[in-house]
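TOKENISE THE FOLD
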Amino acid sequence: MIQEFKTYLLAIKGYSENTAAAYERDLRAFARYQRLRKDDARWSTITMQDVDAFIIAQSNGGRKPATLCRQLSSIASFFRYLKRQGYPVENPVKYESRPKVAKTIPTTLDHNTMIQAWSKTTGELHAILTILMTTGVRIQECLDITWEDIKWERRVIVIHGKGAKDRQVYIADAALWELQTVAKDKKYRIFPSWTQERVRREMFWVSREFDNLQHYTPHTIRHTYATEVAAAGANVTQLATLLGHNSLKTTQKYIDMTQSAAQQVAVMYNPLKH
């Protein structure tokens, strides 16, 4: 049943492989726990108390609030799926009992240092970083770009995002030149020999040359792009479109960060200070 649910998440809901795999892990852990508690454990007999006991056990085992919330989401989604499939179950998850999760602030990079690190690279890595910095796409989205995805005359790239949702990002002059250089004779993927792991490894070696370039990864470049675009005036809807976010809540954090920074500047500015 769990495997069928995972297939549903991938094929129907359009979840990424990583997200679907996380849901599967959560549910298998939940099932194992219930089998240890009850000899006759079945999905139809699961109660809110069973879920609470599992979450308490997970918390005692050191799971963080964010992980506990995801586990609850996995269980709730699974039971909604079972009910839609006609199984005699009730959803045992009580949403108001979810652990409070502190809002996390996305890690960003110092702009000037990021540019210096970029200037230290060459070839295809240079092109990859150029695309990441000027479009904010996810690393796998970048590595999946094909010749046909690049619309040279319109200066856009069709990005195949999460959940099989396509969007267009605009090619800056620097990225356009880089793509034209590395795309020669490439009939399919522009970066066929690159993996996420290889990109991160190469970026790590570059970062070692700089004292203030911790957390230099493709995703922190994406965070930096989003924060800078928000600071330039993009609203939450525009930013969500550029980043390929399904939920505006995911995008709102960048707007909040920009507003928070503006407030700090305003507090520091005192025209009456002598």
